[in-house]
Amino acid sequence: MPHVTRHVTDGNDRRHAFKIAICARLHKRLRCQCGALDGGTERDKRIAVRRAGNGRDQLDIEQGLPARCGWSGKRHGVRLSQQRSGTPGGEPYRSGRLGTTPETPTGPDAPSAPLPTAGFPDLPEATVARLPEYLRALHNLADGGHDTVSSEGLATVAGVNSAKLRKDLSHLGSYGTRGVGYDVALLIEQIETVLGLNHSRAVALVGVGNLGHALAGYAGFVSRGFRIAALFDADPTRIGESINGLPVHHVSELADVVATESISIAVVATPASAAQLVVDELVSCGVTSILNFAPCVLSVPDGVDVRKVDLAIELQILSFHEHRKASLTALPSLAAAAHPDSEAVAT
After folding, report:
1. What is the DSSP letter of 198?
2. Beta bridge partners of 233
3. Separation of alpha carbons 187 and 134, rounded Å
4. 33-62 pLDDT, tens per residue?
5. Please, which residues have CB within 8 angstroms of residue 54's CB and are 6 or more apart in sequence?
6. Per the confidence metrics, is the pTM higher than 0.85?
7. Is 4 helix (H, G, I), strand (E, B) or coil?
8. DSSP string, 117-149
9. Largest CB tally within 10 Å, which of 11, 218, 279, 319?
10. What span, in angstroms and rounded, lies between the C-alpha atoms of 75 and 274?
C-alpha cells in the first residue's frame, strides 16, 4: 500500500508541475498583450485588457495585479490546442471580425511594412471581381423600387452563393441588419466608393476598327461611371472622323490628349501586331490601367494593371463544353452498338 500511495503522489506532482509550466507560458503571453498598459492611452489600455482576458482577470490587470491562471487557460481568452490552419506552429488562435487587420508586433524591433490607405479595405482579387456584379444587381433592384434586400435575394440576382456574398460584403464593413437585410442605396454607395466610381473617370480608346467603333458608341459606360474622353487610331483615313460626338486623333497625339483630359485608363482595340507598341506609348504617357481586347499577351512595368478580354478564347471554352456534352450523349449509343448481345439478353 505505501508503494501505491507513493506512485499516486508522484503522478500528482508531475501533473502539478505541468500545470505550473502551462501557467508560466500563459503569463508570458499575457505580458506581451498587456505591454500597452504602460504609458498607453486609455483606449490602448482597454484594448489590451480585452485581449488579455475577461471577468475578474481584467480587474486584476487594470489594477496592476498578476492575473490568475486556470488549468484550461479559458479565463485568458487563449486556447492551447486550437490553431487556425495556415498560421505558423505555436501561434495561438485569435478570433476576430472579418475584415480586421491581423495583429503585428510593435516597438523599435518591429518589422517595417507599408500601411494601407486609411479607410480603404485590402480586398482579395476574387472579391474585387465580384463587386461589379453586386453593383449591377443593386442598381437593377433600385430601379425596381426596392429599398432593402436580403443576402439570399441579392445573391440570387447577382448569381453567386449567399455565404460568399456575405463574406465579400463583410470586407467592406457592411453586415446588414438581421430580419431586414441590406440597405440598397447605402450598399450602392459603399461599393461605388471602394471601386472609385464616386466620380466620372476619363477613358482613352485606341483603335477604332469594327470593335473599337462599337465600343466608342456604347452608352452603358456613362451610367457605370466612365466616359470615353478621346479616340485614337493610326489609319490616316480614320483621322478626323467623328464617332459619338468625339473626333478621332492620330496616335502621335496621345501624350498631349492624355495630359489634357487627365486620362489614367485606356482601352486597346488594335490588331495584335500593334498592341504592344500602343501600350508602351500609353504607359509612357502616364496611363496605369489598360483593358486589352487585342489577342496577345502584353508586357507592362510594375504598377500598371492589365485586364484582358479575348472573345475568341471565350468561344473556344464554350466549344469545349459543347464537345463534352455531345460526347456524353453519344456514349450510351456507342456502348449499345459495341455490345448488341448484352442488349438482347437484357430484353
Report:
1. S
2. 250
3. 9
4. 444 445 555 555 555 544 444 444 433 333
5. 75, 77
6. no
7. helix
8. PTT-----HHHHHHHHHHHHHHHHHHHTT-SEE
9. 279
10. 67
